[in-house]
Each structure stands twice: as structure tokens, then as C-alpha cells.
Write a structure and sequence with these properties.
Strand content: 5-15%
Largest sheet: 5 strands, parallel
Order of helices and strands: EHHEHEHEHEHHHHHHHHH
Strand order of the largest sheet: 2-3-4-1-5
Mean pLDDT: 91
Bound molecules: zinc ion
Structural class: alpha/beta
CATH topology of the largest domain: Rossmann fold
Number of helices: 14
Number of strands: 5
Shape: elongated
CATH architecture of the largest domain: 3-Layer(aba) Sandwich
Length: 302
């Protein structure tokens, strides 16, 4: 086991759950010799499940914050250099590690370079390219790919969900954790409603200002993620990719768009560009207006 591990892979595919399972296993007193899975039975496992294991710590974004700050890492450094409570390892998870601000990243470097004995740092990232190279180079990288559609369907079928696994996975671009999240509350319905409004906008039945006003209170990241899923599905369909889950919304949108693939890419890149404004102070209305203009520009009737 390396002392610093970077789990890299797409969002909503269970990286964090994997990191927790790994941490639990490293701390377990009687882990399975073959599978390395935690026993779920020993004192360490019960403490871990109760979120009170003294040799485990997780650093995440504080509520409504977009960055992990240096105070969080200082606390972590103190924790790492305390003497251990049990015989086993000390384990730390930092997620999402690309959100460390520069001071926090610098404060982590020394610990990453020379962690105390039996200490394992598990870093989790969907965007490892955004990490400063000095952090990346101190970790062993483990790539966690998106599960196949079949694996995702099998897993989702074991969960308590309201909607059908197929519909959820299609809406979630095949990403299992996102599919589960879409099942909660009104998210799937909200997503459909956004598609309906964009369709009406493209047909000229809704004014851009009204649609922009209607959606300004919805979280920006959700809006962009849903739209990017539709645009990516449209692009994939042009390349005749078969393994993509069938999304029921994107074909309707596609019919109202300009035919060329470059037009789809333009919309795609525009939405990705807007993603960089998700955590900035750009006014919500200006944000939704800019977002809808991207669609209007590529509409067939434009
Ligand atoms: Zn155990």
C-alpha cells in the first residue's frame, strides 16, 4: 500500500464510497485475507460506521464552500502527527482534492512527502489535471473508470428507488450515483421540465427572458450537467455509438438543432465554458440567459 493514493475517475461513479471502503478495510482488525474487505464486525469497523474512529479523518468541502481551506489542512496535519489510538493504520481521505486552495495545497505537501509511519492518505478527484503537479507527483494514481451500463443497472437494482433503473441511468448518462441522486425528490421531473422549456424556446414558443427567469434559482451545476448530458448524447448519436444508454430527451432536442456536428460541439464547449462560472459571483439571471443564448445560437430556426 502506497502512503498516498490518488483515486481518479469520472464524477458520480462511486469514488468516494470506494475510498471509504478502502479506509475501513485498512483500519479493520480482521479483514478478509482474500478479498481484503472489512469484516464489519470488529471494534474498528463499528467505530468507523459510527463516524467516530479515532484514527480516521475525512476532509471535504464545508457546506456552501467551493474550496478546501488551509485551516482544514492544518487540522489534518495535527491529526496525522498525533500518536495512534490502535495498532493499525491511520487513514485520511481528502475529497475533492482539486478544490484545495493554493495555501491548503502547500500545507498538504509536506505531509504528503513524508507522512508518519503507517499513515495512508487517500485523495479523491474527478479532475486530476487541475491538481498542482507537486501533489500529483507525490501520489500513486489509481484510475477508477465509469462502470459498464450492465454493472450500473445491476447495482441500481439493489437500491431502494422509485423510478426504473433504465430511465434513471439514461438520464444520468450511465453514472450510477447520479442516477440514484436523480431518483431523490423531484430531480428527474425538474430535469424533464428544463428539457421541455428548452424545446419550447427552440420552437419559438417561449421567450428567452421568461425561461431564464424561471430557472435562475435552480443550482447552476445541475442545469449545466443535465444540458451537457443531452448534448453529449446528441454528439454520441452522430458517431453511432451503441453502448451509450438511450436518453429519451436528446433526440427531441436534436431535431430542432442545426445539422452540423460542429454546431453541437460549439454548444458543448459553450456549456463547458459556463461551468467555470458555477462558483463565481456571476448573477444567476445573467447565467441562465447566457446558457439559453447558447441553445438559441445553434437552433435550426435561428
Ligand atoms: Zn473489521
Amino acid at each position: 500500500m502506497p502512503h498516498a493514493l490518488l483515486l481518479a475517475g469520472p464524477e458520480f461513479c462511486g469514488k468516494y464510497d470506494f475510498a471509504r471502503a478502502l479506509a475501513k478495510s485498512l483500519l479493520c482488525e480482521k479483514r478478509d485475507v482474500n478479498t481484503q474487505a472489512a469484516c464489519n464486525d470488529c471494534k474498528s469497523c463499528s467505530l468507523f460506521e459510527a463516524d467516530s474512529h479515532p484514527d480516521f479523518s475525512a476532509v471535504q468541502l464545508a457546506e456552501k464552500k467551493s474550496q478546501i481551506v488551509v485551516d482544514q489542512i492544518r487540522k489534518l496535519n495535527e491529526f496525522v502527527y498525533l500518536s495512534r489510538s490502535y495498532e493499525g493504520s491511520r487513514v485520511v481521505i481528502i475529497a475533492p482534492v482539486e478544490r484545495l486552495n493554493i495555501n491548503a495545497a502547500n500545507s498538504l505537501l509536506k505531509t504528503l512527502e513524508e507522512p508518519p509511519e503507517k499513515t495512508v492518505l487517500i485523495l479523491v478527484s474527478s479532475n486530476p489535471s487541475q491538481l498542482i503537479p507537486t501533489i500529483r507527483s507525490r501520489c500513486q494514481v489509481l484510475h477508477l473508470p465509469q462502470p459498464t451500463l450492465q454493472q450500473a443497472t445491476e447495482w441500481l437494482s439493489t437500491q431502494t428507488i422509485e423510478n426504473s433503473p433504465d430511465e434513471l441511468l439514461a438520464a444520468a448518462g450511465g453514472k450510477p450515483m447520479l442516477a440514484k441522486q436523480l431518483d431523490e425528490g423531484e430531480r428527474l421531473a425538474t430535469r424533464k421540465e428544463l428539457a421541455t422549456d428548452i424545446l419550447k424556446l427552440l420552437r419559438g414558443n417561449h421567450s428567452l427572458t421568461n425561461v431564464a427567469k424561471k430557472w435562475e434559482k435552480t443550482p447552476k451545476a445541475d442545469l449545466l450537467d443535465w444540458q451537457l448530458q443531452w448534448v453529449q448524447a446528441m454528439i454520441k448519436s452522430q458517431y453511432q455509438s451503441d453502448d451509450a444508454p438511450r436518453d429519451t430527451i436528446s433526440p427531441h432536442l436534436h431535431r430542432l438543432m442545426k445539422h452540423s456536428i460542429s454546431s453541437l460541439w460549439e454548444l458543448h464547449d459553450g456549456l463547458v465554458e459556463l461551468k467555470s462560472h458555477v462558483h463565481t459571483s456571476l448573477s444567476p439571471l445573467l447565467f441562465t440567459e447566457n446558457m439559453l443564448i447558447l441553445w438559441n445560437n445553434q437552433s435550426r430556426s435561428h
